[in-house]
Structure prediction request, 65 residues.
Amino acid sequence: MKIKINQKDCIGCGSCSAVCPNVFDLNDDNKAIIKDTNSDQGESDDECVQEAVDICPVDVIKVEG
Prediction:
């Protein structure tokens, strides 16, 4: 699974990091980022990533694969 975030349009609400803190965080500019993880994401992370996609109020998170 490849996750992309359109940081230009991100409003920094933090919904993604609230529902999926193992994958998402906010940077110093309050824009969503993907945490640097060296291990494969587990099934529970896949579920929360999809929840983050669904809950994002400005639809800036996209998942491929």
Q: What stands out?
A: Residues 2-64 form a domain with the Alpha-Beta Plaits fold (CATH 3.30.70.20). The mean pLDDT is 91. The beta strands are 2-5, 24-26, 32-34, 61-64.
